[in-house]
Amino acid sequence: MTENRRTFRFRTNRLAKIFPNAGGAIECLVRDMSTWGARLEVEDPEQVPKEFFLRIQGLSDKFRCHVIWRIENVIGVQYLYL
After folding, report:
1. Where are the domains of the chain?
2. Do 36 and 78 meet the contact criterion of CB atoms below 8 Å apart?
3. Would you say domain 10-79 falls under CATH 2.40.160.40?
4. What are residue 5's phi and psi, to 5 degrees?
5. pLDDT, tens digit (0-9, with 9 covering 90-100), for 37-68
6. What's the pTM value of the predicted model, to 2 decimals?
7. Is the Cβ–Cβ distance between 69 and 75 less than 8 Å?
8. Half-sphere exposure of 17 (CA within 13 A, CB side)
């Protein structure tokens, strides 16, 4: 299998919240992350919009994210830098 990632991803099991533009929050678990993106586990991936803000427990930054892929209850996101 070929590795296509730009940077190394660090494994983690951090709790996080997805904040859609429409309001509300969706709880998730960050399974791994890098400087470019993250792999998130969610209960219902259909509730997650294409773009959202992500706040990871223990980190002060809020990340603007874009969904790149979805497989079952796992989604891969890329950070969007302003």
Report:
1. 10-79
2. yes
3. no
4. -70, 145
5. 999 999 998 899 999 999 999 988 899 999 99
6. 0.85
7. yes
8. 13
Q: Which residue has the tokens 């992500």?
A: 54
Kindly report the length of the chain: 82
Which is nearest to 16 in space by CA: 27, 6, 25, 32? 27
DSSP code per residue over 12-74: EEEEEEEE-TTS--EEEEEEEE-SSEEEEEES-GGGS-SEEEEEETT-S-EEEEEEEEEETTE
> Within the chain, what is the greatest distance between any pair of CA atoms?
39
What radius of gyration, in Å, describes the C-alpha atoms of the chain?
A: 12
Strand 51-56 with 74-79, pairing: unpaired
